Amino acid sequence: MRTVLVLNGPNLSMLGSREPDIYGTATLADLERACAETAAELDLTADFRQTDNEAELVGWIHEAVTGRIPVVLNAAAFTHYSYALHDALAMRTAPVVEVHLSNPAAREEFRHTSVVASVAEGTIAGFGFASYQLALRAVAGLLAKEGPQERQQQRADLT
Ligand code: DQA
Fold it and tell me: What is the mean pLDDT of each successive set of 10 residues along the chain, which is 159 residues long?
């Protein structure tokens, strides 16, 4: 079963109590459960992580690059200004889907810029937990389109 890294940036550990009018009242643990369920339906395993630390997030992207692991990424506020994250994602070797719970385009001006968008296959925003579930479906679709060569490469990398 293929693993997908589901990576969450700063302040997302506070889901449930963080600005509930915007982010709802469900917690990060609830989101992890929803992702695990959707991933299982798609024959994927979700490796779900959260950090407030930019260096740690960059390190996880390096892990994905080396291991050819697909990524669903909510970079949270790093989305809007982390060129380090942009540069790490530019090295991607498997699909990356950017997600947001809220719709940044409908919020403050500083959220209208994403330095992640241009180094992701696509962005899903504004649908709450469903943004992640749709992103996992998008990843599954992209993996299904992989040619035999890419699949072979993936197996070779694992051995
Ligand atoms: C967010 C949107 C970002 O602008 C914000 O900084 C976050 C969460 C979202 O999921 O809606 O922390 O990425």
Answer: 97 96 96 98 98 98 98 98 98 98 97 98 98 98 82 60
Domain map (residue ranges) of the chain: 2-158
Give me the residues paired with residue 124 across strands: 99
Q: How many CB atoms lie within 10 A of CB 112?
A: 11
Pocket test for ligand 1, best of 17, 102, 107 (most atoms within 8 A of CB): 102
Ligand 1 atom index nearest CA of 22: 11
Sequence-separated (6 or more) residues with CB below 8 Å from residue 3: 44, 45, 46, 47, 69
Q: Among the atoms of ligand 1, which is closest to the Cα of residue 131?
A: 10
Distance 102 CA to ligand 1 centre (A): 6
Architecture category of domain 2-158 in CATH: 3-Layer(aba) Sandwich (3.40)
Q: What is the pTM of this model?
A: 0.94
